[in-house]
Amino acid sequence: MDAENPLRALPPVQRLLDGPEAMALSARHGREAVKAALRQVLEEARRTLPALPMAGRQSDQAFVAQARDLLDLRARPSLRRVINATGIVLHTNLGRAPLAAEALAAAEEAGAGYSNLEFDLGTGRRGSRTQGIEPLLQELAGSEAALAVNNGAGAILLALSALAQGGEVIVSRGELVEIGGGFRIPDVIRQGGAKLVEVGSTNRTRITDYAGAIGPDTRVLLKVHQSNYRIHGFTEEAGIEALSSLARERGLALVVDLGSGLVRCEPGLAEPSLAETLAAGADIVTCSGDKLLGGPQAGLILGREDLMAPIRRHPLLRALRLDKLTLAALEATLRLHRDSPDRIPVMRMLRQTAAEISARASRLAELVGAGEVIGTEGFTGGGSLPGEGRPSAALAFDPACGAVEVARRLREGDHPVVGRIAGDRLLIDLMAVSDEELPRLACALVLALA
Ligand SMILES: *Cc1c(COP(=O)(O)O)cnc(C)c1O
């Protein structure tokens, strides 16, 4: 009879709900949620059964198991921890900089209760949101004043809106860059109400080009660091020192969008630092918090106190202001730059030697019992040091089912891993993998290779 009408084989929800497996599920997810999940599973079975008559022979346990999978999936956060085996330290799609333990602890402490976010505990009056980061940035980068907003793009938008005041901003044609995701510097400038005046050519811009373009409406000279590209060959650009003298002479502000936010010069990282850019004469410098600074997503504005005043008063600041969790994590990261930079994951990763990474790859090979340790080229990423590889090491696999298939299984596993495909090999690059992640990575690999 069931074979003639498979729908009759479907059990009633109540019977499933009263079974021991569903009772255990209810203790975890709540009875109503389990009931709803069971209904959904039965509904799905009702829809597919006429096409697949034999599927009607499922046991009660099988239906409950499907409901359990559904509930587990629903309970899983959409933003999940991923192991970054791409060999790119600041991978924008994977969330850029992982935070230091101290930064996470600071965010937790700030978020668990109330805080003196905008409250001066000494006077009992309203305080400033950036009271914590300002002295740190003074000490670390020698900036008179500092402000933090949501991200690097916000920092440029706010600084230019406040300083150009609808006037002209002069920028080199070689620096009209797209910073990723389709966002372009010229659009950010125009959005801020400023008029863009382009000077020079893509490959060569001289200081005289800037000087010749200055008019009565000019307010700002803007220099954008070539962070995610390089122009090679017959090139020329005006340096910060020359632009600074010109700006001073003509009563303009020199704004430098540095992008990556390297706090101080670092051996092996040929990027201009915040400190040296300010020392060279930039009036205002902007950068991201989650690139080489190694902190949370944020945008920093550093520089002269007299220029910071109109920036602080600009209405956009309210729209771009940082949340307390981020602010706490940012301050803790800056403190680490001062006291113990090696505790910042990004700094630690970029200071590793190729031998150290290779040793980690060997340890992983032992745990997995497969793979070949090879030398690779890793990258800083996040728009820093474009095209400049860093010596790294990977565990390479030539799986029988294909590298693409194993890469897919790794991405879709319980502990997602993102690796790299090179030719028909799967590379698990160890540059951006921490020692603590090795056991979990090994587990994921064993499962995906099985
Ligand atoms: C990354 C970058 C930005 C954008 O910073 P976000 O924090 O991603 O908004 C702007 N300018 C330069 C030069 C950059 O490298």
Number of contiguous helices: 18
Q: Largest beta sheet, briefly?
A: 7 strands, mixed
Distinct small molecules: pyridoxal-5'-phosphate
- What integer value in Å does the Rg equal? 28 Å
Question: What global shape is seen?
Answer: globular
How much of the residues is beta strand, in percent? 15-25%
Task: State the main characteristics.
about 450 residues, alpha/beta, 7-stranded mixed sheet, 5-stranded mixed sheet, about 40% helix, globular, binds pyridoxal-5'-phosphate
Question: Could you explain the architecture of this structure?
Answer:
By secondary structure, the protein is of the alpha/beta class. 42% of the residues lie in helices and 18% in strands. The chain is built from 18 helices and 18 strands. Strand 17 and strand 18 (425-429) form a beta hairpin. The radius of gyration is 28 Å and the shape is globular. The structure holds pyridoxal-5'-phosphate (PLP). Residues 151-153, 179, 224-225, 227, 257, 259-260, 288, 299, 383 line the site of pyridoxal-5'-phosphate.
